[in-house]
Amino acid sequence: MEEITEEAVELVARVAALDIGKASLVACVRVPHETIPGRRRQEVRSFATTTRSLLELQDWLVAQGVSLCVMEATSTYWKPPFYLLEDAIAACWVVNARDVKNVPGRPKTDRLDAAWLCKLAERGMLRPSFVPPPWQRELRDLCRYRRTLTQERTREKQRAEKLLEDTQIKLSAVISDIFGASGRDMLEALIAGQRDPYVLARLARGVMRKKISVLQEALTGHFLDHHGYLLRMMLDRTDALTAQIKALTGQIEQVIAPFAAQVAQLDEITGVGRTGAQELIAEIGVDMTRFPTAAHLVSWAKYAPKAKQSAGRHKPATTGKGNPWLAATLGEAAISAARTKTFLASRYHRLARRRGKQRALVAIGNSLLVIAWHLLSDPDARFTDLGPNWHDRLAPLRRKRQLIAELERLSGKKVLLQEEAAA
């Protein structure tokens, strides 16, 4: 049956679009014609991306009465125009470049791209990307830089361990963390010129003293002053990075203080922890009204497989590329949760046996996002673990439902179960 619908040709009366580059941008404005009813007037101008030129752009758009301004997410070049216009224009959107591809075969210039983007916007054919509010942008910068410094510190530690392997010092084979109290004392002694394995092994503390004989063998090598010079620089850089990470953590605590209740909620989730909770809030925020359901959040984060169907057949598809910072946080939380005795760990191991470890980690990340959405949507909600035996308790019920459904399909009648009478 053919359905005939009537749609408005123009949905937005006064719209502007920006095609942004590093040094300049092209702005296109489409507004109703002053003298010819039903016609549109289009004007295209070029501006530099300096602050003075962007202020001129803002004045021009305000004078034209623009109610919607759209721009592509081109690298980080979209940020200065967006931050300047978001308070001056009623609606300011950043759109995905994949949604605004021009028709193949048409000429491609900055002016034509701006006009095409403007036409798409006025007809309501675009959807805005999620741009966090100012406080969240600040928190994002802090959390992301902390993660970057943490990764750099890990690389520096790996360089130090590689240097020790070059000198036949097998300390990492005996101590799980060579940068702990015992390991650090031994490294400092090596740098100071101590080469006697027995003396070095006696620097072990606590339970490590039970491994003195093994440590003595591991510390027998050919460590030279050249290695000590390099190791000193590596340890100093590690200490400097640790101090910066600590300072960043203190600043993050101040910025996120108004949302301490939400941090406490997410901290209760298995595998997340306080640092993970801060990073989750930095990436997804605390206002879950922008995601109508938990499935919307999961889809936005690219933790749900894409739908790929053709000719009546469903084909396998990946989840796509989402926010890498959010993915890193969810990946660490999923790995930590998999090592516990909880519902999430049980779910991980069930899926890993059938689908592999990588798909199981994505599934746990999906579950973590669903849990986070429900917690942030309800201030009074608290996380309660279902227990590692949840699937075992659920299996008999699922099997019973399957048998009842099969019997109803074969008999064409409704099946009701009754309790067995007592003997």
Structural account:
The protein has three domains: 15-122, 2-Layer Sandwich (Nucleotidyltransferase, domain 5), CATH 3.30.420; 135-255; 259-377, no CATH class. Residues 1-8 have low confidence and may be disordered. The strands form two sheets. Strands 3-2-1-4-5 form a five-stranded mixed β-sheet, with helices on both faces. It has a two-stranded antiparallel ribbon with strand order 6-7. It is of the alpha/beta class. The N and C termini lie far apart (62 Å). It has helices spanning 51-63, 79-85, 110-122, 134-166, 181-192, 197-201, 212-218, 225-255, 260-267, 273-284, 294-300, 324-338, 343-355, 357-377, 390-411; strands spanning 15-20, 24-32, 40-48, 68-72, 91-95, 309-310, 313-314. The chain is built from 15 helices and seven strands.
Features:
423 residues, alpha/beta, Nucleotidyltransferase, domain 5, five-stranded mixed beta sheet, two-stranded antiparallel sheet, 15 helices, 7 strands, 9% strand, flat, disordered N terminus
